[in-house]
Every structure is written in C-alpha cells, then in structure tokens.
Amino acid sequence: MLTTDMNDRLTQVGPGTPMGDLMRRYWHPIAASLELNEENPTKEIRLLGEDLVLYRDASGKVGCIEPSCAHRKANLSYGIPEENGLRCAYHGWIFNETGQCVDQPSEPEGSKFKEKVRIRAYPVEEKGGVIHVYMGPDPVPVLPNWDLYQWEGVERSTYAVMLPCNWLQCHENSLDPVHFQWLHRYYGMWRASKIMGEERREEFDRISAARGKAHVKIGFDRFEYGIIKRRMLEGEDEQSEWWRIGHPILFPYTLRVGQGTWFEFQHRVPVDDTHTLHFGYTIRTPEPGEVIAPTPMRHEDRPAFFDNGRIKDDWVVGQDQLAWIIQGPRMDRSTEALGITDIGLIMFRNMLNEQIKVVEDGGDPVNVHRTAREIIELPTEFAWYPGYDRTGGPFADLQPQPVELERSLL
Fold first, then answer.
1. Which of 23, 41, 236, 306 is the least crowded, having the fewest Cβ atoms under 10 Å away?
2. How far apart are CA 306 and CA 196, in angstroms?
C-alpha cells in the first residue's frame, strides 16, 4: 500500500514533478506519421502536462512546438506549412522545428528582430511510421531500433485511444498476468454472450482461451530494458514458452505482446495526471512460406466509449481499458489491499522509485539509449519471428536462469 504522497510521486507527470522529470528522459510515441499530410499538416497534442502542436512543413520535416505564436498568441495549429517551417495564420510569422522565428513579413527589410524571437520546441523523430517526441535535457538520447520498427515484409498499423485516467493504473495492468483469467476469460465471455453475435463470441472465445486458463505460477525478471513477465498455466510446466520466454514490459510504460503472426507494442503515454493516450503499434508477420505484399500503413483513432456512454468493452484491449477507467481518473493507492498476485506491480513501483532517484542524482535511468544498435530483438512467446520456422524465433531455445521473483498460486 502506498501513502498519498508516494502515490502522487508516481502519478503526477507535469513539469517539475519527480515522475515528470523521469518521463522526460524518454522518447514518446505520440502520433502516426500518416496523420500529418497535405490535408491535415498539423495536430494538437498534449504530452506530460503540456499542450503542443505537431506539424509537417512543405519539405516533409516534422516539428513539435508550443501552440501559441510569440507575436499575438494565435493558435499555430491553424498555421500554413512552408519549406522552412510553419507560418502563423494571423500575421505570417514562420517558426521552424527548433522554435526559432525565421520570417516576419511585416517587419522592416533587414530587421534582426526575428533572431530574438523563439518559442518552445522539442526534438522529433519518425521511426517505423510513428512520430516520437523528446522533451528532456540535452544530450538527446538515441531512439532505439526495436525489432518491430525494423522488420521488413510485414504489415503495420497503429491505433490510438484517449483514456480519462492516469497512466500508472493503465500500465500496472501489464504487471498483472492473472487478470487475463478473470477480466478477459470470465467477464469477457459473460459480456460476449450479451453484446456480440455468435460469430464474434466464438472469435473472442478463441482469443481469450489460451491465456485465460487458470494460472498456477507467475514470475518476473528485470532485464536491461525493463521487466520480463512469465506465467505457468494449468496443465503446463517450466518448458512452456509462457514461462521460458515470456514477454517484456519496456520501461517506463510499454507492453510488448504477441501470439502467432501478431505482435504489438502497447504504449501507455502520459498525457497529464488524469489522461492517457493508449497508442498501439501492431505488426503481422508472414507465416512460414508466406510473402506479404507491400501494403500502406493504416491508423485508426478508436473510441473509448459506446454511443450510450458505457465503456467500449467488445474487444480484449477494450476490456483492459475498462478496468483502468473504472478505477477513477487517478486511483488512490493508499486504500488498496494487495495480494500475492500483485508481486509484479510492487516490483515495478519499486523500479519507478529507483529510477526517479537515478535521475535526481544526475544519471541515466534504465532503457535510455546512448548508442545506436542496428536492431534490438525482444522475446515474445508463441509468436512467429520473420525468417524462423518455429515460434519464439531467436529465443526458441531460451532456458532462463532462476527467476528473480516468482510465486506459486497453488
């Protein structure tokens, strides 16, 4: 159980807060690249408690700047893309991706006034069809080449859901293997029988069956990028891929999951203290012998609620989102009663506090990258990696050392 002060320390992400300072050491996936185009060259966003504008200029470069023009404070989301930046709709001032004013058409010829004018701006990088923003101090870290960004011959898509709740109650779900048995298999099938047709119900039954069996043991290991989550289901032993390989939780807020030819990053991006952008990055890999024809990347903004105002729980991730939202805008952890199945989230909370201290002491927290690597492969159980003829890919024969933290549920 956390005190109110400790809960605030882990959930408040605005400028100058301990968690906000930690979060500003990372690149944040905030939009699909295809969202910025000729018809919609700008997008208003909110990230770590700050309102910002993404834009793509006429040369194709993406910038992230504060929304107010330095002149008369007009909203720059209505700006016009030029070759050298974004031109304010009100008086035509142009700001580039560094926030520097580079044109003031109504000032006298030869005036150097524009050189004195700058607005807040943050570094942006596109990778894998996703726009990432970095809001921290120099030097800017490397945006990692995660395997899903680098694989060729796959289908890619993204989705985004804005959730009215704090990032931590969303992400702690990643450290809770047992919820699948109850939230998805039990509650999910109960809901499926009421709101889905028979075909959808059978589809949902297949999806939830594998991981929805009774859990007999859970385990967690720290590794260089975060935590590996393991589970042993009823009728299995330690040779099961669920236990031997598991899947990672990338610090600070990304879950990597997969099964069959499906892989996904689920990013729980902190918008502010009471809102989270749940940003999904989905890959379909070819089955052995299949060649996937090149297809354009897709993006979908998904609703969190049905038209009647109830939480949209007719898909697996929607049921996760239901569990997070019904805890309230910001959960009060000073009144919770934790049990034996909560060892993973306790490990994660301890890790958050440790990494906050690392930042306060002037160091780099875990999973901040200073050197580029060509590709970073991540373990995922029962999933087909490109170029491999069995699930698990390069991790198929993995035999882990004794698990750092495990509990039997028998």
1. 306
2. 14
Average pLDDT, the chain: 94
Q: How far is CA 347 from the centre of its chain?
A: 20
Q: What is the pTM of this model?
A: 0.95
Q: Residue 400 CB: number of other CB atoms within 10 A?
A: 17
Phi, psi of 174 (to 5 degrees): -65, -25
Angle at 409 between CA 405 and CA 410, to 5 degrees: 135
Distances in Å between the Cα of 229 and the Cα atoms of 91, 137, 211, 221, 244 are: 54, 31, 13, 7, 10
Distance CA 351, CA 169 (A): 15
**What is the spatial distance between Cα 50 and Cα 48, in angstroms, rounded to a whole number?**
6
Q: Are strands 124-127 and 262-272 parallel, antiparallel or unpaired?
A: unpaired
Give residue 195's pLDDT band: very low, low, confident or very high (50, 70, 90). Answer: confident
CA gap 133, 251 in Å, rounded: 16
Q: Are 277 and 269 in contact (CB under 8 A)?
A: yes
Residues 314-343, mean pLDDT to the nearest whole number: 94
Residue 117 CA to residue 102 CA, distance in Å, equals: 9
Instruction: Sheet with 215-223: list strands edge to edge.
Output: 298-301, 155-163, 275-284, 262-272, 254-259, 247-250, 226-233, 215-223, 405-408
pLDDT score of 182: 87
Q: Which helix (H) or strand (E) holds 211?
A: none
Helices (H), 210-267: 241-244
C-alpha–C-alpha distance, residues 92 and 307, integer Å: 41
Cα–Cα distance measured from residue 407 to residue 256, given in angstroms and rounded to the nearest whole number? 22
- Residue 185 sits at φ, ψ, to 5 deg, of -75, -45
For residue 206, the Cα-to-chain-centroid distance in whole angstroms is: 26
Distance between CA atoms of residues 310 and 322, nearest Å: 9
3-state helix vs strand vs coil in the chain, percent to 5: 25, 30, 45
Whether the bond between 139 and the residue before it is cis, its omega within 30 degrees of 0, is yes
